[in-house]
Amino acid sequence: MAREKRDPFRDGRRPAGRALQGEAKLPTFSPTIALRSIDGHVTRTGTQVMAWYRLSPQAWSFRSDGQREILIRQIAAQLGELQGRWLHLRVTTRPYPVHMWAESFDQNALGRMPDVPGALGWEAFLEGEQRHLMGLSMSDKEVFLGVEVSGRSMIDRWVERAAPMLGRVVPAAVRAELSALESELNHLDALVAGAGLDAVPAGASDMSWLMHRSVALGLPAPRSLSDVPVGVGRWESEDLATFTDGVELYQDPYAPTVKVTGRVRGQSVTRDVAVLSVGLMEGLRIPEVDDPWMQHSDRLPFPVEWSARMYIRKPEEVTGELQRQMGKVRSQIRHYTHDHDLEPPMSLARQADRVLEVEDELTSGLTQLNTRLYGWWRIAVSGRDESEAIQRAQQVLDLYSPKVQIEHPEAQYRYAREFIPGEQLASTAYRRRGSVTWAAAGVPAATASVGDRRGIMLGETCTATRRPVAWDPWLAQEVRRASGLTAVVGGLGSGKSFLTGLIVYKTLRAGARWTVLDPSGPLAELTRLPELASFSRHINLLRADPGILNPYRVVAEPRPEHFLDDEDPERSWRRERLLAAATRRRLVLDVLSGLLPYDVARMPHTRIVLLRAVREVGGAADRHPGLVIDALRRHQREGEDHSGVVADFLEERRELPQAALLFPDTSRDDPWAADRDYRLTVLTMQGMTLPRPGSPREEWTDNEALAVELLNLASWLTQRTIYDADRNIRKGVALDETHFLSQVPTGKVLIDRLARDSRKFNVRALFASQLAGDLLRVSGFASLVNAVFVGRTDDEEAQTEALRLLRVPTGVGYEQMLGTLSPRPRHDDRPDDTPRQFVFADGHGGVEKIRIDLEAPHLDHVREALDTNPDANRVAVRGVPTEGTRAPDEPRAVGARQVVVPAGGIDLDDDTDPADLPDLSAAEVRSGAATRVGPGDESWGLQVIDPERDTADDTQLELLDDLEEGWADIDEQDGLAEPAELQDHRAGEGGR
To answer: What is the pLDDT of residues 633-679, one digit of tens each?
Structure first.
């Protein structure tokens, strides 16, 4: 009888001696480094747990010695709190994130202008900026600090080895070690986050970068490192192969370098690395004389890696050692004095004194600052071959000599592995002992920190640290709710116009709108660049239509729709209308007074008769200065003889060609007619003669006095364009020669108004002046200014005022530094076309010396357009300009027709009648050349938007004196009640 066979696996059991293939023993992986796991910012080896932090950059330049000492003491105090712990300090570099900047810059370029066929487009511009940045090979310093959390017990190590099995059976046991250390980690996180270190726990990407830069020491840093997956912050032992695979270190016997081979961007790369050690060091005077000794390496043109292992000693350990050392010294002194009756050597006496000083430091004062430590500081440099690495190592030795001795030890392989977190110390040789204050004086995180990472590229820092400088002119208004006021200060040839042109061009490409007042005219060349020409216009005010600078029209008329957010929109609008009318009357009074001879203008009766006539004309926007002269004539007929004298002088000035800009021609079209939207408007006044800066008013000639008044009106005209566009659009105003505005009362009002309205209307206002003192004399300017650029300044008083504008300490040696900006050899006779240097304060605490950079190949045409250096080689024949030579306000000769010029030439003075030149059109005569009419000859007009104001400032209160008559006119026209401000003002002045 057949029996049924039993399935041995039917009841879930397998026969003895049989095993599943899946349960076969798997090969084990053991990392080639000491680390066993990374959990967040915590690393674990077989014997130690360390928490890693990333230190914030610390500004060092342009700070007083007191501020620097405070920083050193703050760092020392935090180190002193870590008694009994091992620290691992790692300083590495990361290439400047060009792709991240380009992405942020592209996203921040809101409303940029469309591309022009055949010209430099946005994509080509952005690509050119990135290529140029990548070619500069600049990097950011990154400083990491590892702090020992605790040692690891036998149970912790057993749990780690059994983690694969315990993770399935008892998952909580695997996390028990970190859970037990949670309170200690929280304490360390709060301790190192204080002022001084300003450290934050290293993130997953930070730990990944630190491991890559440490294991692959000396290899070129990748331009970009693959991001750690979101939510992943733990690397098990098997995951550590991510950092070690593909990297090999080896050393030939007694070789001065170690070779590191790895893969970079898919290619095998080998570098020779020389590891140095800090040896004997003399007493450095930091910060009085010397810079932080760890920051010295930032001056080298190649990357330098630092690794420091420190142990913060406990006071009881130091006290016992000092007592033993003191006993040795005293025994040696007795040996000299008692045994041999000799005076002990001075070196022995100095040792005894120093031991007593250290003992006194430990028993008095702040114990955190006097805590002792010992440690080892290593420096690593790399080269393409051994000779280059040794050459760079020699540069490090020369840099620190003679105050610091740098050693080149043997056993380079073991020293190189010290840079990897968790590795053991290679040797105790070259141990350095000192206080935490001495270690803190190295200030490892000191670097150049200025600008932001989303704005236009200005250039690079040129201090101890070299890094790109990006600046967003509208970050202050849109994010930080700060002013957009910017000062550009520097002497002749300091590069103010070049810097202004760079800012205007690059921000235009990014979508901003600019109005530029450039009296001399070089910035007008921007309007002729192919990519900007169709969006730009150049207006030479001295050749513009009569009345273009009518004082009554350059002050904006408020619009009701811009006060809808106020509590009482109608009251705010009426107040602004009153202030606008009062400002017009004050502006007309100042301008007409400036046109008069100085002896006549200073007479008290002159101002009285002018004030009476201006009040009679009123402050409406449809008036003009000719009505004031008519009023003076009426007063003359009424018996006021001095009114006739003033009217005679004004009539004489009215006949000057330039004065026609103030008096409109009623028979011609309104120059304020509406026009198309322009992105760039450049106003020039070529041929205008301004007085010498600083010269007193009584020394001005009639033409110079008129020029100052025209400049004042042109500045008001410039600010008027702010209110023509939407208040949220990014706008910019650039004013040159502003030192003359500070000498005119209404000029000061204009500067104050731009400063206060820049945030409300999203405006970046650039004020260029030769002397910082002229801007400081404007009330409130120093407190409202946001960013500052200071170029070469030679006068001592001007240097001090420039430092005040920068908000940096004075009297500590920075004054002389301003005189060394943009250095040039004395006997160099080549054209001075070197990039200019400025001290840049970004308005957010960063102050650094920077070098303006417009050297990128894709910007060659912009650099040529902004080049204002004269060159006789541009003229081929004496007296006959070459084809490429033209006046700054002259359009390019595109499609120009030939003109037969008589032998005696053509007189193109202001009195020349175009009809007298049959071969030239009227537009060609105005442009000064026989070319096609460019954008500068097109008609233009402006709309008016006046800013909202919360409270009346001092200037507004002064203008209230002139409101009574203006309010009467408005009341009659609009039927509005008199505002409370005017009622209160009249009540306060009732007894006058």
So the answer is: 999 998 888 999 999 999 888 888 778 888 887 666 655 554 567 89
Structural contact between residues 77 and 312, judged by C-beta atoms closer than 8 angstroms: no
User: In DSSP terms, which residues pair with 151 in a beta bridge?
Assistant: 48
Residues comprising the chain, all counted: 992
Q: Is the CB of residue 451 less than 8 Å from the CB of residue 458?
A: yes
What three-state secondary structure class fits 64?
Answer: coil
- The pLDDT of residue 256 is 94
Residues 831 and 812: beta-carbon distance below 8 Å = no
pTM of the predicted structure, to 2 decimals? 0.76
CB of 293 closer than 8 Å to CB of 306? no
Q: Is residue 267 within 8 Å of 424, Cβ to Cβ? A: no
Residue 724's contacts (CB-CB under 8 Å, 6 or more residues apart) are 942, 943, 944, 945
Residue 918 has pLDDT above 90, yes or no: no
Fold of the domain built from segment(s) 473-545+681-693+703-822+834-869: Rossmann fold (3.40.50)
Short-list 212, 223, 210, CA closest to 260: 212
Residues of 722-733 as b/e, b for ≥16 C-beta within 10 angstroms? Answer: bbbbebebbbbb
Q: Which of 476, 475, 446 is nearest to 461 (CA)?
A: 446
User: pLDDT tens, 842-869?
Assistant: 988 889 999 999 889 999 999 989 886 6
In the numeric block, which tokens belong to residue 817? 């530094």
* C-alpha span between 625 and 650 (Å, rounded): 10
State how far the Cα of 332 lies from the Cα of 347, in Å rounded to an integer.
Answer: 12
Three-state SS string over 319-358 comes to HHHHHHHHHHHHHHHHHHHHHCCCCCCHHHHHHHHHHHHH
Pairwise CA distance, residues 946 & 173, whole Å: 70
Q: What is the token pair recorded at 414?
A: 């073991």
In whole angstroms, how far apart are CA 631 and each of 98, 578, 611, 613, 615? 65, 22, 11, 5, 10
Joined together, the tokens standing for residue 815 give 């004054």
DSSP secondary structure string, 495-542?
Answer: SHHHHHHHHHHHHHHTT-EEEEE-SS-GGGGGGGSHHHHTTEEEEEGG
What are the tokens at 421? 């977190």
| Nearest alpha-carbon partner for 749 in 622, 547, 591, 627 | 591
Residue 982 has pLDDT above 50, yes or no: no
Range of lowest pLDDT (233-237, 369-373, 784-788): 369-373
**Sign of the C-alpha dihedral, residues 502, 505, 507, 509?**
negative
Residue whose pair of structure tokens reads 């359009």 in the numeric block: 891
3-state secondary structure 931-950: CCCCHHHCCCCCCCCCCCCC
- Measured in Å, how far apart are the chain's first and last C-alpha atoms? 139
The dihedral through the CA atoms of 210, 213, 216, 222 has a sign that is: positive
Cα–Cα distance for residue pair 523/501, rounded to 1 Å: 6
The answer to whether the CB of 808 falls within 8 A of the CB of 849 is no
Residue 269 has phi, psi (to 5 degrees) of -130, 140
Residue 554 CB neighbour total at 10 angstroms: 24
Our measurement of the distance from residue 818's CA atom to the centroid of its chain's CA atoms, rounded to an integer in Å, reads: 18
With helix as H, strand as E and coil as C, how does 716-770 read? HHHHHHHHHCCCCCCEEEEECCCCCHHHCHHHHHHHHHHHHHCCCCCEEEEEEEC
Average pLDDT, rounded, for the chain: 79
Comparing C-alpha atoms, which of 710, 735, 672, 705 is closest to residue 941?
672
CA dist 727 and 946 (Å) reads 10
Tell me the residue type at 661: L
Query: What whole-number distance in Å separates Cα of residue 419 and Cα of residue 336?
Result: 46
Taking a C-beta distance cutoff of 8 angstroms, is the pair 929, 923 a contact? Answer: no
